[in-house]
Amino acid sequence: MWDRLKVRNPIYPLVAVTTALLVLLLGLVLSSKPEVFTAYLVALCLLYSAFGYGGVVAKCLLIFIPLGIITGGVSILIKSDWNTAMATLGRVVLLGLSVVALITTPPVNLTRCMTRLHLPRFLTLGMLVTIRFVPILAGEIRRIREAMRTRGVNMAWYNVGGFYRAFLIPFVIQLINISDLLAVSVETRAFSLTATETTVYKCVPFTLRDALFTIGMLLFSGAGILGMVLL
Questions:
Q1: What is the pTM of this model?
Q2: Do 48 and 162 belong together in one domain?
Q3: pLDDT at 1 > cutoff 70
């Protein structure tokens, strides 16, 4: 699943992290103005598409729009307020758009950038493990489910015994194996939290494309703030 969210030329990793935070925080502020907020979301989609993220944006929207509709539907059932439902839908879509640049960033590139900034090594390792945890977890779940299907295990939700024996136990054991493998990998590579000298095998350059993306994001953000003030 994670491999389908790759792009050919991801933007600079630190720009991706900053973009995710900026889009989310500014979007939450602009959500109080529905017209400005809607224009902001459309502008984000156009900006991402202009820099080669159109496919990822489409996939995120296919996931987060139905999720937002469901969440908004719950709001309608509770409050019977369509405005609240639409605001909820917009915030869910905003959440999906805010992570577009981040989820397409290769974790190793982010680690390299953080290492060049001489950030604490426990932070770089923790960031790498955290980012890779979700796709690895999804892959293990997929493999276990495929094994269950191959062995003819009843995968219905009411088959608690089959779920426990055929899914939960192998899943927990595999998680333990992954943690052991990670510990051995870190130890064999002589990883140390106290090391002062580090070497980056391949530096990630900050290109003109990254600068243009940053400028475009700042311009869109400034336009959003201006629209909120004027309206």
A1: 0.71
A2: no
A3: no
